[in-house]
Amino acid sequence: MNDRSVELLEQYEVEVRGTRKGRGAILCDTDQGTLIFKEYTGNAGRVELQNMLLQEIARRGRVETESILPTREGGLFAQDTDGTKYLLKTWSEGRECNIYDKGECAEAVRLLARLHDCMELPGDTPGLPEAFSQEREYEKHNRELKRVKKYLKQRGQKTWFEISLLNDFDFFLEQALAVTEQWQAYSASQGSQVQGKDGTRSFCHGDYQYHNILKGKEGWFLVNFEKCLPDNPVRDVYLLMRKFLEKGNWSVALGTELLETYGRERPIGAYSWIDLYYRLSYPEKFWKIVNFYYNSGKAWIPGRNQEKLEKLVAQEKDKQHFLDAVFRDVSRMAGQG
Questions:
Q1: CA 213 vs CA 6, 138, 156, 272: distances in Å
Q2: Residue-level pLDDT at 193
Q3: How many helices and strands (H and E) does the chain possess?
Q4: How far apart, in Å, are the Cα atoms of 117 and each of 262, 265, 275, 334?
């Protein structure tokens, strides 16, 4: 951000007393407390949806979240002369959720369950986006994996990372294809579950991870709803749990505790339980490593790539043990529909 973008704050009904850099944005000390001014890359329709959900969450009052401040003219973002858009949002000074503290991990899951109880909108709300398709996402990832495998096999002189990646490729690609096939068969037999029986549409935060769960003097505060979308709420459960479990070496005890904590606030139905199982089963971390490699420069490959791959392979046995121990009845349930 530059001085020109800070001048856009004049479009708001706030008295700015000082600004400072923080979290890739500008923190503003104002007559309305600390606010955050950050660049927004989405379209107008998405920020309107985000604002609608944040207002619904605030109305229900179960969790504390950011809110978007309108400009003097009632717009949800300010726009620079070069077309860059910015949002002004409420903010709470605090630290990120401690991923190594089991108590805070449990609190993050508890907050998520309460958040999901608030993230529903009437299905006939104008302008709602199409429900997310996990099936299409898997198919897209699988095509990308196949393309990179072909590229690696044809590549001449390979680095150690590329050799390692190719050695592990068949295992994870076969895993991805198998999970996709099984999920397609099950979901086809059940139909979409995003639309509730009462006609409401369920939404997810979209990026619910410890970076966006802040603890301040007045309690917990949830931020960065820019990736919110209509999908089964277990999408958020999956993302948060995968982050926690990767740090905790796929501990069965930790995973069970987190799921039970979520379930006490918001029970997970049979369909969602199976959905969560397949999301955890799909080798998304491998796809992320492959995708980052393929879309980055090949002249120099960061050593961090090799470390991530080695950790992923080393944890695979623990991950499969976790899935077997925690979801041992899923295959039977899926078969019965």
A1: 26, 28, 45, 23
A2: 56
A3: 11, 11
A4: 11, 9, 18, 26
Q: Tokens standing for 37?
A: 């001014």
User: Would you call 222 exposed, middle or buried from its count of C-beta atoms within 10 A (0-12, 13-18, 19+)?
Assistant: buried
Given a contact cutoff of 8 angstroms between Cβ atoms, the answer to whether 221 and 214 are in contact is: yes
pLDDT of residue 303: 86
Q: Residue 87 forms beta bridges with which residues?
A: 38
Strands (E), 66-199: 78-79, 85-90, 95-96, 120-122
Token pair in block for residue 142 = 């699988």
User: How big is the CA angle at 228 (ends 226 and 231), to the nearest 5 degrees?
Assistant: 160
**E strand residue ranges, the chain:** 16-22, 25-30, 33-40, 78-79, 85-90, 95-96, 120-122, 200-204, 213-216, 219-222, 229-230
Spatial CA neighbour of 25 closest among 85, 76, 65: 85
* pLDDT tens digits, one per residue of 88-139: 999 999 999 999 999 999 999 999 999 999 999 998 888 899 889 999 999 9
Beta partners for residue 111, in sequence order: none
Retrieve residue 2's tokens.
């530059």
Residues contacting residue 303 through CB under 8 Å, at least 6 positions apart = none
Summarised one tens digit per residue, pLDDT across range 153-199 is: 999 999 999 999 999 999 999 999 999 999 999 988 876 555 555 68
Which is nearest to 162 in space by CA: 290, 254, 2, 4?
A: 290
pTM of the model: 0.91
Residues 233, 204 contacting (CB under 8 angstroms): yes
Spatial separation of the C-alpha atoms in residues 13 and 237, rounded to whole Å = 37
Q: Say which residue, 188 or 145, is predicted with more confidence.
A: 145
Element at 26 (helix H, strand E): strand 25-30
Radius of gyration of the CA atoms of the chain, in A: 22
Place of tokens 């037999």: 189
Residue 306 has pLDDT above 90, yes or no: yes
The widest CA-to-CA distance across the chain, in whole angstroms, is 62
CA-CA distance, 112 to 233, in Å (whole number)? Answer: 9
pLDDT of res. 331: 47
Percent of the chain with pLDDT over 90: 81
Instruction: Give the pair of three-digit tokens for residue 110.
Output: 């508890």
